């Protein structure tokens, strides 16, 4: 189940993420792939908000590596693995807890794919060459 999606603006990207959030359950891992500025963080932040966080500011985990949200309907960890030097470092981020009890949103997952489940949901962004606001994505692992 692979689907191509085009987001013409940020609102469409957020609407997609809200629809995705309604289908998520504990144990889901969402791999977010794509270059900087392609929409990965928009998807992650929207899912976190849609699942009920009370946090007003949802920071990127670029420097902290992980931001945890336990005030959501299902615990969520938003991870950015860009700065990991070794795939095994993912175990320092409490991945086991979220694999069993929560939802993992993982930016730059290819760094530690060896430790992620095979049945992940993947959203791979490809920036449009026609318009900087348009985002193209390939979605696999879930029907939306």
Description:
There is one protein chain. This protein is 22% helix and 26% strand. With 144 residues, it is α/β, with parallel strands linked by helices. The protein has a domain at 11-86 and 117-128: 3-Layer(aba) Sandwich (Rossmann fold), CATH 3.40.50. It has a seven-stranded mixed beta sheet, with helices on both faces. Helix 1 (10-23) crosses helix 2 (40-50). The relative contact order is 0.26. The model has no long low-confidence stretch (mean pLDDT 89).
Sequence-ordered SSE layout with sheet pairings:
Blueprint (H helix, E strand, L loop, with lengths): L1 E6 L2 H14 L5 E5 L6 H11 L15 E4 L6 E5 L14 H7 L1 E5 L13 E7 L7 E6 L4
Parallel strand pairs: 2-5, 2-6, 4-5
Antiparallel strand pairs: 1-7, 3-4, 6-7
Helix pairs in contact: 1-2
CATH class of the domain at 11-86 and 117-128, named Alpha Beta
Query: Rough shape?
Result: globular
Mean pLDDT: 89
Which consecutive residue ranges, at least 5 long each, have pLDDT under 50? none
Short account of what is shown:
The chain has a domain at 11-86 and 117-128: Rossmann fold (3-Layer(aba) Sandwich), CATH 3.40.50. It has 3 helices and 7 strands. The protein has helices at 10-23, 40-50, 95-101, and strands spanning 2-7, 29-33, 66-69, 76-80, 103-107, 121-127, 135-140.
